[in-house]
Amino acid sequence: MKTTLRRFLAAACAAAGTFALASPALAEYPEDDIRIIVPYGPGGGFDTIARIIADALPQYLPDGATVIVENVSGAGGRRGVGEIYRADPDGYTIGVVATTMILAEVSGEDLPFKLGEMTQFGRLSYDGMAVVAAPDSEFQSIEDLRNADRPVLIAASQKFTPGIVASLLDFPFEVVTGYAGAGEFVSAVVRGDVDLSINTPNGFVSYAEGGQLSVLAIFDPAYEEAFPDAVTVEDMGIPDLANVITGRFMMGPPGIPDEARDTLAEALAKVAEDPEVLERARQANAAFDYAPPAEVEGLLADQYRLTEEYSEFLE
Fold first, then answer.
1. I need a labelling partner for 273 at 20 to 30 A (CA). Which of 41, 184, 222, 288 fits?
2. Bridge partners of 246?
């Protein structure tokens, strides 16, 4: 599995080289509708941010090109990402890709895509992690967790993400799977069936504000101000806690010509700075945390490294 990161970096470098050798620049780009594929159904976080982008992007593209969103769900996002990967490399099909696809790559699945070969337009957003417990739990701090004389039970839908966070925090634990979504995680914690849940903060905020949960740690800067008593990545001094994320990236098929790639990337960067767009995203709980294409290779490399290092938690 350790070769996966090397293959990703090699593919990313090859893809970067391909840009310089790509087909001749398009005479007038864009000349047709641009399609943003969302690899999940309507209404979720990926769909929301894609539609906000689709509404705003035309004003930053030449001649106000039309941008449409198409939901291509199935196989946990793999079907949609495969369609993005196989699309004609003309700049008219792009899509939102989750970092969870890296788990599938590292686990050795036979996938219809390779993320390292895809054209990168930037990171759109990401969610870090939160560690929460019941207000009456015996565990009210990271120190309490580290001093536990038994495995701390963690409610989750999968072992991988909570397994990494608990390992980095260095306390004894057991991940209890079979729960689906934040509501079930919270119910299990409040009932006392488990001790903790570790997941993205957006699913816990309302419960914490209502006094149903104690937030022990927040590893997402967007939520630090709301929970000033929770420990942060900086407090813990463990940089990799900031790399345990659910990230959303805009990607396209390999080999998109320079003109189309640069035009789209520049327009997307402007969308991510537009105050009206940012406010709309904030109200929809889909805030941007944009990173340009030049940073994406390093961000994804961190994800591959962590996934390979903690592959024991892959199911």
1. 41
2. 127
Q: Which fold has domain 3-127+245-313?
A: D-Maltodextrin-Binding Protein; domain 2 (3.40.190)
Tell me the C-alpha distance between 65 and 96, whole Å: 19
Q: How far apart are the first and last CA of the chain?
A: 14
CB distance 220 to 201 below 8 Å: yes
Give yes or no for residue 186 having a pLDDT over 80.
yes
Q: What is the pTM of this model?
A: 0.81
Domain with CATH 3.40.190.150 in the chain: 3-127+245-313
The residues facing 114 across adjacent strands are none
pLDDT tens-digit series, residues 3-22: 555 555 555 555 554 444 44
Question: Tell me, what's the pLDDT at 24?
Answer: 45
Note the pLDDT tens digit of each residue in 223-232. 999 999 999 9
Concatenated DSSP letters of 214-277: EEEEEE-HHHHTT-TTSB-HHHHT-GGGGG--EEEEEEE-TT--HHHHHHHHHHHHHHTT-HHH
